User: What shape does this take?
Amino acid sequence: MNDDSLNRLFACARQLPPDTSRAEFGFETRLLAGLREQRRRHGVATLVWRLCPWFAATVAVLGCWTLLQPPDFSMASTLGRADDVLLTELLTGTTP
Assistant: This one.
């Protein structure tokens, strides 16, 4: 195909109006469905962002609670014992 015939084909194609009837069919329905889906996705993200302060407050309260608990001195009796005695106690569950 030479350049003249190709240019004539392109010129004829440019003169014809594009057929948009297929794209127009159900446009409003597709548009509203897309908006509904986008709103649903943003709704979940909004919910997560709204819950972030609650999660942060819960972590802060639990952190303060663990800091305010009295220390556990149950391991104080193991100070000064030999490692093999401690290992035996841990494995058997008995104290010599």
Notes: The radius of gyration is 37 Å.
